[in-house]
Here is the input.
Amino acid sequence: MPFVVTDACIKCRFTDCVEVCPVDCFHEGPNFLVIDPDECIDCTLCEPECPVEAIMSEDDVPEGMKEFIELNATLSRQWPVISEMKEHFPDADEWREVKDKLKYLER
Here is the structure.
């Protein structure tokens, strides 16, 4: 099962996960990262690197976040690959604990 980025990443966009990915399956949008499910090799390296715990196995995505499975697949076909770590957003720590951030997603 591929891994999925959930709403905890929105407006934070920490890229620690990108640095450890051996297959460059992450894609970058304006304020969110997604994982290409066709490229993800389920290596689990990214999951513990995420400081906001936004990454999880598709099997572990909670019922209220299932839409992120399709969102990752769709947006990974539209957004460019990111393969190097970048600075997170300056206000990322303020957004770290905010819940239900889907409404802030920029496409």
